[in-house]
Specification:
eight-stranded antiparallel beta sheet, seven-stranded antiparallel beta sheet, Immunoglobulin-like, 699 residues, 1 helix, single chain, mainly beta
Amino acid sequence: MSHKLTALMLALFAASGVFAQEQAPSYRFNQPVKTLAVVPMTYLAQLSATSLTFSGVDVGASATQSVALLNVGNSPLALGTIGIDGAGTPFSANTTCGASLAPNASCTLSVTFSPASPEPASATLSVAGNFTNGPLSVSLAGIGREAYGTLAASTSADFGNVEVGASAQRSFLFTNTGGRTLTGVYAAASGAGFSLGTGNCGTQASPITLAVGASCSYAVNYTSSAVGSASGQTRIVSSAVNSPSTLALSAATAATYQAQLSTTTLAFGDRDVGTTPALSVNLLNVGNSPLTLQAPALTGDASYTSQTACGATLAAGASCATTVTFTPTTAGDKSASLAFSGNYTNSLPAVTVTGRGQTNTGALAAASGSSTAFGTLEVGKSATRNFEFTANGTKSLTGVYAAVSGAGLTLSSNTCGTQASPVTLASGAKCTYSVVYAPTATGTLSGTTSVTSSAANSPASLSLTGTAIPSTADGNWADVSVLLRGNGTNGSTVFTDSKGTYAWSVTGTTGTAPTISTAQSKFGGASMYFPSGRGIQSNANLSLGTGDFTIEFWAYRTGDAGRPSPIVATNGWILGGNMSGFYTAGYRFSPYEWCTVTANNCGAYGRMTQTGSNYNVYNTWQHIALTRQGNTYRWYVDGVRVVEGTQTQSWNLDYGQADLKVTIGAGWIGYIDDLRITKGVARYVGASFPLPTTELPDY
């Protein structure tokens, strides 16, 4: 077939509405042949949706939805009218479609819903054209929603009768009953006495948002300030069309005449004769109107008198006091009655008044063996005096407490109570306390101790006297190792070390043991007595080594043991005297002494000896002191230096000995008093020093 013929046939098919489509070639007799298929022309359209529904659109607002128109045929479409059927509907249409729509192309139809009321609405979007499956349409439906709120009282907006000064409360509920969210929601209340209480409905300064169907609640308070009626309003402001939502409020206060007593009993209890205690009762106007009053009437025992501050009228909420005074002149029970009267509508009982007259006193005195005089006392020392207070009457004393005033005075061991914590004493009972005088400066004491109580003669007091003199405290007390004053009970074998570092026990078994004796004493009324050469020994070592020290004591010789007589000794050193013929009479110090028993000879290294009649006496108190300062040793007898020597090789008084326990009085016959060993200090270094005139201090 020629090409011209083929073209002619195609033209004919096109004119008849049929077009030719070239098929894949086939071959016959080994010649290629082209086959043509005939396809008819189609005009078809299709919508992407056949219905549109609009919901949740606020009245006055608009919402738009779209639908697509598609040419699903094989020929161009000629489009006609596209519009909304029906007049006055809230729907409107807009389109991007032109006069024609090519095959496989699409265009958009837009529908806008603009409700003017919350009523349901419907319409149809119609599409016209030359498509063979038409006309096409879209069903339209929608409903507008409107903002609306409802305010209601949970119980009542009437607060009823409220007394003056009292308050009442009512609760309210606001609900979003419209079709859209409410904004700018807040509660308010107005009117005299009305105020906004707690709630979650917001305030003008901080409004809230309320979803559809949601509620909020709040309270309104009313406080009455006067008799009469009151009115007010509560409201909710919001974006609702009916804003503000309001409710009227009302309340009333009726006149009331009511009185009340603060107590119906005035109980004075036990009161001392001659005292004038007073108790009061208050009359209160608990109504809301002024009261008219008459004077209170007191009847009963003449021990009672009354005085009132209540006038002829008493304002609402006010009170007035009536005071009853009890002045018993004799012992025994007393009673009375106090009656009030006025225009109050309630009944008031009479006030019962009771009391009992009683004589009662308290006595303060120095305890047995004590006094109010502290005498003369050194600064830094203390003395104690004991006191007792007795409830002499027939009733208990209350509010009992002891006190003391005066420089250096304090309370101790107090069972009489303090001002912060007083005690009660039953009739005939007694309490005790001590007053400690510890002066910090010299001068004369002028003090007072007293006991305060409910007794008629309270406070009971005593004057305290004393004199503070300069202190004789030992400035080197911290360096003292031993202080044996020799005080105690006559015949006792207990030797008390005032320093407290060492305990002392009797040594040896032959001869009479040393004791405390009151036969002789330099100070304190007793001393240590060594009758047979047996001594006392410390329970622990005392090392003097190579340091400074002072050894001092008072010695009273009554005999001799017939051998060298050490007064103070350890295995390393001896301080004593020779009271027999082997040595010339006198005292000696040896840093180390040894004896050979078989040869009966003793030697000494660096012995210091002082002889002479002045240092070998009987039945006389002598003060003996030995000091070491560096390598210099000094002997003192009765405060006068008698020997001074320097040992350049620095004696070590311990000499490596394991046993350095101190022995006192072994080989000595006589008395020793006020023995003191001071380690680390040479107390005396001059040619002389004043002798102690009192017992050595223990502080």
